[in-house]
Amino acid sequence: MDSVRQLLRTKGNSVWTISPNSTVYQALELMAEKDIGAVVVTKDGEVLGMFSERDYARKVILQGKSSIHTTVGELMVTQVYYVSPENTIEDCMGLMTEKHVRHLPVIMDKELIGLVSIGDVVNQVIKHQKFKIRELEKYITGGYRL
Q1: What is the full DSSP assignment across 49-105?
Q2: Which end of the chain has a smaller Cβ tally under 10 Å, C or N?
Q3: What radius of gyration do the chain's Cα atoms show?
Q4: CATH number, position 49
Q5: pTM of the entire structure?
Q6: Is residue 146 part of a domain?
Q7: 85-143 pLDDT, tens per residue?
């Protein structure tokens, strides 16, 4: 199966970050502007946590907090699971399933170089399955020539 490195070459390695001192409102503005579901929380290039729409729904709205007065650092998930470019899409799928996370930062030599979402993983799996089906159809219908 494809590696994370191959996935990043295809989708790009743009990753949006925010400071832990930023307000939740600022994080929501960034996510809305970039049409993303989560941001990586960093300080001086170090990954400190993740903040997602899910965190907003569960930790701000349901707890009656204000997104304008609450910082991302107060609510971010600090247990961050990550992958390297050498990991496979299958590795990502397993980690996401086991740890119940939807986003995995990609880190190489302690540097954040990308982000893999559950949507990215599902798209790669579907792409891989479609390729296998086409190859099997060719084999069955005699599309392969020796």
Answers
A1: EEEEHHHHIIIIITTT--TTTSBHHHH-B-----B-TTSBHHHHHHHHHHHT-SEEE
A2: C
A3: 19
A4: 3.10.580.10
A5: 0.85
A6: no
A7: 999 999 999 999 999 999 999 999 999 999 999 999 999 888 888 888 888 888 888 76
